[in-house]
Sequence to fold (926 residues):
Amino acid sequence: MKKIIITIVLFATALVSAQSQFEQGMGKAFQLWGEGKPAEASAMFERIASAEKNSWLPNYYVALVNTTTAFQSLGDKEKVAPLLDKAQEALDIEFIKHPENPEILVMQAMIYTAWVAYDPMTNAMKYSPKVMEMYAKAGKIAPENPRVVFGQAEFEIGGARYFGQDTSAMCAQIDKAIGLFATFKPETAFHPNWGLDRALEAQKECNKK
Amino acid sequence: MKGIFTFLFLIVSISVFSQTKISGKVVDEKGLPLEGANIFIEGTYDGTASDADGNFSFTTTATGTQILKITFLTYESFTETFIVENFKSKTIKLKESMNSLDAVVINAGTLEAGDKARVSVLKPLDIVTTAGSAGDIIAALQSLPGTQTVGESGRLFVRGGEADETQTFVDGLRVAQPYGASANNIPTRGRFSPFLFSGISFSTGGYSAEYGEALSSVLLLNTQDEPVQEETDISLMTVGLGLSNTQKWEKSSLTLNTAYVDLAPYQLAVPQAVDWNRAYQSLSGEAVYRYQFNSGLLKFYTAFEAARFDLNQENINTTEKNRVNLNNNNLYLNTSFNGVLAGTWDITTGLSYGYGQNKIGLDLDDVENTEHASHLKLKVSNKFSDRIKLSIGADYFITQFDESFKENLGDSFLSGYDANIAAAYSEMDIFFSKKLAAKVGFRASNNDLLDEFNLSPRASLAYKTGKFSQFSFAYGDFVQAPRADYLKYTSQLETENTAHYILNYSYNRQGKTFRAEAYYKKYNNLVKFDTPTAQFNSVYENSGSGYAKGLDLFWRDNKTFKNLEYWISYSFIDTQRDYRNFPIQATPSFVAKHTASVVTKYWINSLRSQLGLTHNFNSGRPFENPNKAGFMNGKTKDFHNLNLSWAYLMSPQKILYLSVSNVLGTQNVFGYEFANTPDANGVFNSKPIVPTADRFIFVGFFWTISKDKKTNQLDNL
Fold:
């Protein structure tokens, strides 16, 4: 009897440890990212992606980490293109599997936005409509997703400010997004749940005028 | 007893989780350590990043056959199957990715514009925002080195070659009639609206074996693969109206584009040097349909244009003007498929058909000609790796040309020809390293009308000398059947041929591009005839020859000055040829020794406006002056043309555009026409060939209607 119990316990432990390996790995990767080591974090997410082929999250974070780094490196032009290529490569793997996932659509919109920021004169014409296409598609699927609502409003507000047009509609969307952030419940601790701080920044900008 | 059991279990579980150490070193092709490479066992969590010395070490619980994978930005991924238990520490060399932006590019002779171009000298927007181009693709290309400004023609003249030595291709398929209809000394425009094309590659020599039937140059236009959104574009211009609409579905899309041009109201407002009975008027339409299959993309492109004009041209030989009344109908169809054939083999195949019909009334005589020109194409290519790519293909060109000349109250004369050209080619791209690449190939063609077979080798080599600079060299033999003007009277001719030698240096660094290209071209077998103009009873023979040599320089800078983009191009050419009815080898009248242009675009943020200034210059062009001894011994004065344009974004989707050509009002002369016979004093009278108007003013309003409310037609201007 005891043998059986011990066997079961050992077996269960093995299962639990397999489960927590994902959590441990993700936790470690987030920690690295938090410590300002995006390259290491991206590498860690990439390794998790190779082991967890059924989860879209690791590749999503490879894309997010590299795109965020690209935005921070806009001053160093030679760095940006390889980072965005890496992000796109990782996202492509999941895009085919989950073409209707709003978070992945938002991620794609962010990669395009980064290309626009990288070289507006060359890329704005080409990528701006694509950014809008991604947000429009995501908005249809998940109109209450705060990142969808905020991402679209943030992208539109830049153009409207430039033309001196009324930004109140977009500001209202940003307010709405902030409300949605408050109630948004990610499926697990590792599902995307970022964006509130940026939305609050944008709201401040709105309230200035 | 219990204790033993527990102990046994522990042993078992430890052996299950037994760990193997995996270690080694990651280096680049030179053996230098790479820091930050991601090393892991595929399908497991086990892995690490390499340290500053390229060393890595981690433990794994995996056993048996596994895949070791190494990834690193800008390097090719490394994968290797191995048995964990047998792993021995090793050094792994990563190859630099050929896809990365700083790899060597085979670019001798080629000027790229567009989305996909790795090193582009022009952006898609430039075609249209260049002052003076007025939306004409051809006019924008004339601001690039290697071209001649030939104001009375409007066509592309490349490196000492005639305009018909440039062959135009849309999605890889020939366009037999790329220009709109025009009369003698009245400039024409390219037929295609820049709106539908996302990539342009303009080769001024040494081009790929994929393209043939062009002695000097190829212009490759690629239609957009996929429009980004549904939209409607409305254009109101001083010269006409335009309307375009794009619809998008799940897997397919359709773009319709139509334009009506009528120069009559404008010419009423601004008097012209031309005596028009009916000013230029045209109705044109284009349609592009795309369907995305799982295995590839099908595109269907069609363009139709009906144009007419009627004018009286002064003639130095008669007191009366000559009337030219022209009606032109042109239809172009093009279907292409680009996709995966099987495995790593790709296929590109297509069919194009061009129909051109001209009805020309010359005073009381009538000329009518029709041309049917088809092109069938099949190309397969295999990218064996990032380093080797093979293309094999075949072309079949069918041309049928018929012309009738009916004298007033007289006889009709018929002329024409049918020619079929079959060609096959093979070409290989080889990247020896990120620094050295080669492209070698050949093209074989057979012309059944001339009963002639030709084999043309092509080769180019590129070597990267520094992070931002490289040298390339290209060599090629090129053949082309003589022009319709001769072939319609006789088929007792041979193809004309050239050999190109090109040496290119280019420097590209974030927003700055410098390009220098030296070339030598040798012409042989050029057609000659023994009468003042090519006519039915002339004696034709392939006894002509010639050469062209020169230097083309290009500098573009988008970076140094904020909001200012500019480029400067300069071409020097020394060319002579003995062709047509030339008594000796001489420089033809369309060639200027020095050609230069400066193009600037300045974005004024506070005015939301783009200001464009373009200056074109060329030194005097030769002309034949019968009052002086020798041949082609006259020279016109220098040519100057300063163009100004202003695009104002009224709102994100409304643009007001103004352009003025020849702002300074320079009195330009392209050449002179001389009387056939001298007057009573023994002097041949002459008349200058001048632009149809000293200045052209264009005002347009462009309005885009789309869901995103952001897109506009700035790239159409």
